[in-house]
Amino acid sequence: MNKNVKYYQAIHSNRVWGDSSYGKHGEYILSILSSIEKRDSAIDFGCGQSPLASKILEADDGIKLFDRYDPSIENISSIPQENYDILINTDVLEHIPEDELKTVLKTMSSVSDKAIIIIHLAKAKLILPNGENAHCTIKKPKEWRSLLFDFYHEVEFYQHESLVHAIFICGFSKKENEKIKYSINLIKKRDVFKRLKELVGIERKIKYLVKRFKYNRLFK
């Protein structure tokens, strides 16, 4: 068991926490899942209070079962079944102490040989009662990928739009990876287009303010 789990148990019992994964990663996860043919069952491993499972069940009729597991939350502190088609793990591994990582990854890979893993790459704002940063294990993407290769036969890395997250697609076939790469690239293109639109909007607003400033000066 994670030596810090008691701190997370206290946090979850006192406030809403760990509920943002769908908002941050939902588009990526849905897009990746749509590229996978066999996805009848899935588990959100280390789910916190996230509604990710219920949201994806609503949006993806290819998934029939989506379980949740978090050792810090009493009613979901046991893994419901032995095996799933896909495991999803978001913003979790950076919370695991370095000396416990391999044990956790061994459990994850035994639950499913295919995984979508999203990891935060920077320190957290939260400091635990023992004085440690909640993100106690920080690695570069290439270091995470090297570690994941010990547990999955294929590991692909993708940059997240947030720039502080890394996406790892683990255990999928080359054919599946080609489809996943295509779907992630579509999201990236949409993100670029969205940001260009935002920049155009900012530019127009600046031009309007400059024009208004000049106009106001005429009457001073």
**If helices are DSSP runs of H or I spanning 4 or more residues, what is the number of helices?**
6
Written as H for each helix and E for each strand, in order along the chain, the element string is HHEHEEHEHEEH
Helicity, as a percent range: 40-55%
**Low-pLDDT segments, ≥5 res:** none
Topology summary:
Blueprint: H1 5-14, H2 21-34, E1 41-45, H3 52-59, E2 65-69, E3 86-90, H4 101-111, E4 115-120, H5 141-148, E5 155-159, E6 165-170, H6 174-217
Parallel strand pairs: 1-2, 1-3, 3-4
Antiparallel strand pairs: 4-6, 5-6
Helix pairs in contact: 2-3, 2-6
Q: In words, what does this structure look like?
A:
- There is one protein chain.
- The protein is of the alpha/beta class.
- Helices cover 43% and strands 15% of the residues.
- The chain has 6 helices and 6 strands, in the order H-H-E-H-E-E-H-E-H-E-E-H.
- It has helices at residues 5-14, 21-34, 52-59, 101-111, 141-148, 174-217; strands spanning 41-45, 65-69, 86-90, 115-120, 155-159, 165-170.
- It has a 6-stranded mixed β-sheet with strand order 2-1-3-4-6-5, with helices on both faces.
- Helix 4 (101-111) links the parallel strand 3 (86-90) and strand 4.
- Helix 2 (21-34) packs parallel to helix 3.
- It is globular.
- The model has no long low-confidence stretch (mean pLDDT 88).
